[in-house]
Design goal:
Radius of gyration: 24 Å
Shape: globular
Structural class: mainly alpha
Bound molecules: zinc ion
Number of strands: 0
Distance between the termini: 32 Å
Number of helices: 12
Helix content: over 70%
Largest sheet: none
Number of domains: 2
Order of helices and strands: HHHHHHHHHHHH
């Protein structure tokens, strides 16, 4: 797969020297996207159609509502609700028909589990799950992250100073490591692949060990006997540990803004 290469944001993210440059990029894209969806694109028919189909996840509804543009949020929500009601109606019908079938089928058939009514109810539940699992912002962010992961590999392969900066970095969070490893397995080969995977693993491993030690000291600081001892690097150890484990979600903004 070919991606549009934009090296500057990736270089900038590595220069931040945080726990994960891809988390920093994801956050930046997320904030820009949320603003964009409540800006001019609220009224773009193209965007509206896609929003109507997919909607937003809980996290992104929360971010949209924090933008203080209630009218924009409500307009998108209204047409998405109408589209969703049509889909949900299909699922409700299916579940009710299934339940009816189950209750009116002959006893023997029901006991042998041969009515198919329960299947229909389960299919309806699956339909509802699909309706509620999609998010247009998550999709857009994922697409961007694929591109950034690809760009990071491109930089690693073509820019010796990036290679050095990456090897000296704190690596990535485990979630983005998976993304980058998959991308590397598809896009790299030979000695370069070997070196990249080694740098990625050793930088991340080192950072995990440091974070673990800092987090332990963070917990020990709650002991009154340690109250007067210095914090060292432990003050934000909990936030850093969460970032390493699951990707950034708490603590200072990873994109430095
Ligand atoms: Zn990350
Ligand atoms: Zn989302």
């Amino acid at each position: 797969m070919r991606y549009h290469i934009d090296t500057i944001p990736v270089w900038d993210a590595v220069k931040l020297e945080g726990e994960c440059p891809l988390c920093a990029l994801r956050r930046k894209v997320e904030k820009t996207d949320v603003e964009r969806y409540l800006g001019g694109s609220v009224m773009e028919p193209d965007t509206r159609i896609r929003v109507n189909e997919k909607g937003f996840c809980q996290r992104h509804h929360k971010m949209l509502s924090e933008q203080k543009n209630k009218l924009g949020h409500a307009l998108m929500c209204h047409t998405h609700l109408k589209t969703t009601m049509q889909k949900a109606h299909g699922a409700f019908d299916r579940a009710q028909i299934g339940a009816k079938e189950e209750s009116t089928a002959p006893l023997m058939k029901r006991m042998m589990g041969k009515t198919g009514g329960r299947e229909e109810i389960l299919k309806a539940a699956k339909m509802l799950r699909e309706i509620t699992d999609s998010c247009i912002l998550c999709d857009s962010i994922d697409e961007n992250m694929q591109r950034y992961a690809y760009t990071l590999l491109h930089l690693y392969q073509n820019d010796a100073s990036f290679r050095r900066a990456f090897a000296a970095s704190k690596g990535l969070c485990l979630k983005d490591m998976a993304l980058l490893m998959e991308m590397a397995a598809h896009e790299m080969s030979g000695k370069m692949l070997d070196e990249f995977i080694r740098d990625l693993c050793s930088a991340t491993e080192k950072s995990l060990e440091k974070t673990e030690g800092d987090l332990e000291w963070f917990t020990l600081k709650f002991d009154y006997r340690n109250a007067d001892k210095p914090w060292g690097d432990s003050k934000d150890a909990l936030e850093r540990a969460v970032t390493k484990l699951r990707g950034w979600c708490i603590g200072e903004e990873p994109d430095g803004q």
